Amino acid sequence: MRKKEELRLKRHKRLKMKMFGTPEKPRLVVHRSLKNISAQVLDDMTNKVLFSLSSKDKALKGKFTNAGNIKAAQYFGQVFAQAAKEKGYSKVIFDRAGYLYHGRVKSFADALREGGMEF
After folding, report:
1. Residue 47 pLDDT more than 80?
2. Would you tell me which CATH number, out of the four given (3.30.420.100, 3.40.50.300, 2.30.40.10, 1.10.10.10), belongs to the domain 3-114?
């Protein structure tokens, strides 16, 4: 693993100690790569993934040519918020997974808030 990724994982571990997802308020974890973005809603009490979505999914893949930019993250946030609300998850704990709250992560979070999710 590269040094940058090791530092991110170290930050994520430190952040994760302060957050704990419950069935009433699960933890939403975002992961970004160079070309894609994905998010999961987790229940830490049972260690289960309640809902997940990725920009690699067939329904989203055709909407943009490159999912590694801010516009794609914003669109993905709108779609994720709508799908999560349909599943019944509107209040979550936002876990940025050690990434800086900047760029795609910030754009994704802002789109979630616009979509009606609370954190």
Report:
1. yes
2. 3.30.420.100
